[in-house]
Amino acid sequence: MDGLVGKARERSLYEADEHAWMLQQLALVREGRLAELDAEHLAEYLDDMTKSNRRAVRSRLERLLQHMLKSDRQPWRATRSWRLAVLEQQSRLRWELEETPSLRPFAEDSVPAAYAKARRFASMETGLRAAAFPEECPYSLEEALAWEPPMPGDPPRRRGANP
To answer: Which of 37, 99, 125, 147 ranks highest by number of CB atoms within 10 Å?
Structure first.
């Protein structure tokens, strides 16, 4: 009976205070008390974490590509804010991939879909037709991570774009 009461208390703790529940689960693992783990919620939580990590990588990639496209086509409009957005997304994306190397294949596979979204947003933000941007992503993940934002006075970059 104590086991059932304990499980009910864990579930209510999971629902009431996720952080306290995580600390409890961590303590149980460290103490080797694996039979007492809230396995159902732990599996759900780990699955959610995996999805969250992927969403973060995809979102950073979308934002990075969006700013790259805007800066490539309209370098004279590339404000300090645009350049900093590129550098910030590169830095955070690099960190995510260094901390979690298993996300790199996901990031590489996500480039085409992230680019499609970035292209739509860049078109709307710049006022340029979507055809002004390459239909397919002209950058690999590595190129995007190494890309240098244009400086004021730089001419437009026309990698694979239609006029």
So the answer is: 147
**Per-position pLDDT tens, the chain of length 163:** 455 555 555 557 888 898 999 999 999 999 999 999 999 999 999 999 999 999 999 999 999 999 999 988 888 887 888 889 999 999 999 999 999 999 999 999 999 999 999 999 999 999 999 999 999 999 999 999 999 887 777 777 665 544 4
Predicted model pTM: 0.79
What is the gyration radius of the CA atoms in the chain, in angstroms?
Answer: 22
Domain boundaries, the chain: 55-158
Six-digit token string for 114 = 């992230």
